[in-house]
UniProtKB/TrEMBL annotation:
This is Putative glucose-6-phosphate 1-epimerase. It comes from Pseudomonas umsongensis. It catalyses: alpha-D-glucose 6-phosphate = beta-D-glucose 6-phosphate. Its EC number is 5.1.3.15. InterPro entries: Aldose_1/G6P_1-epimerase (IPR008183), G6P_1-epimerase (IPR025532), Gal_mutarotase_sf_dom (IPR011013), GH-type_carb-bd (IPR014718).
Length: 299
């Protein structure tokens, strides 16, 4: 294994690090502890860096792996226990409070054959804006033959805190219309594009239009099969029993100022999550770790 190679780079307004270790190359921003891309030598990227993503201070980035925390999506669609954690009359930002703020780089160090990168977000005194709880966050990234991401929430306060969350990973695909997801057959999902009805998945998931679904009771392993790129991306989750699968397709992508009109063809989000009945209630002193390991195999 070669020596880790870390280069500080600036992408427009954001401090980032380009990290090379063995066959892997990772680009990560301080804002949001946001992985922007991940590639293994000789393969197309695994994590998608949208060419039109915007790197501005305080603006969330539409690419890579945004961290959604302490709620996922629209707060009003979350269980009451998650909504009750927020005390504010201002509208709630979608996907929570930590994806557009700076985290602290805890360290980048070799650990045996792997390389570990740690970001910390100690909870400020009084909590985050409109969210008065004392929960410390840590995002650990480990590079070996795979990319391992884990997000640990540690309740340092005296009351139970309930959160929903996701590692909102954008995967790079040859063309979303020609890939499918395995591991979902027989699961229930919430079809958010049809009045949040609960539906049962039959067979593998193929993509023929805008997709925004919350899969429930998910297994630990899901995979994206991409015949044109002759690869299978394998996702192995931990601390999670739900996943969100999203592709904006034509009209929604065209409405985004930070995605090319045809950008939707090259990405697919599978978001390792704790949402709906899978939200996390953290007792005082308790911790929870949400994790995903990402690797690929030749088909
Ligand atoms: O536009 P953003 O806030 O980054 O959210 C992007 C998407 O994230 C998730 O996948 C949600 O399920 C979608 O409804 C949402 O559109």
């Amino acid at each position: 294994m070669s020596t880790p190679n870390v280069e500080a780079v600036k992408l427009d307004e954001l401090n980032c690090w380009r990290i090379r270790h063995g066959q892997a190359e990772l680009l990560v921003a301080q804002q949001g502890a946001h992985i922007l891309s991940y590639q293994v030598a000789g393969q197309p990227p695994l994590i998608w860096l949208n060419d039109e993503a915007v790197f501005k201070a305080g603006k969330s980035i539409r690419a890579g792996v945004p961290v959604c925390w302490p709620w996922f999506g629209n707060l009003a669609r979350n269980p009451q226990s998650v909504q009750a954690m927020r005390i504010s009359s201002e509208p709630a930002a979608p996907h929570g409070l930590v994806r557009a703020i700076d985290w602290e780089l805890g360290g980048i160090e070799a650990e045996g054959e792997s390389l570990k990168i740690e970001f910390l977000l100690p909870c400020p005194e009084g909590g985050l804006p409109g969210w008065p709880h004392k929960v410390d966050l840590k995002l650990s990234i480990r590079l070996d033959e795979q990319l391992h991401i884990s997000l640990t929430s540690h309740n340092q306060g005296t009351d139970t805190v309930t959160i929903s969350q996701a590692l909102h990973s954008y995967f790079a695909v040859s063309d979303v219309r020609n890939v499918h997801v395995e591991g979902l057959d027989g699961l229930s999902y919430i079809e958010t594009l049809d009045d949040w009805k609960t539906v049962t998945q039959s067979g593998d998931l193929h993509f023929t239009g805008e997709t925004d679904r919350i899969y429930l009771d998910t297994p630990t392993q899901l995979s994206i099969v991409d015949p044109s790129w002759e690869r299978r991306i394998e996702l192995t989750s931990s601390g999670s029993r739900s996943a969100v699968i999203w592709n904006p397709w034509t009209e929604r992508a065209a409405a985004f100022s930070d995605m090319a009109d045809d950008g939707w063809q090259r990405m697919l989000c599978i978001e390792t999550a704790n949402v709906m009945g899978d939200v996390v209630a953290l007792a005082p002193g308790a911790s929870h770790t949400l994790g995903v390991s990402i690797g690929s195999k030749v088909l």
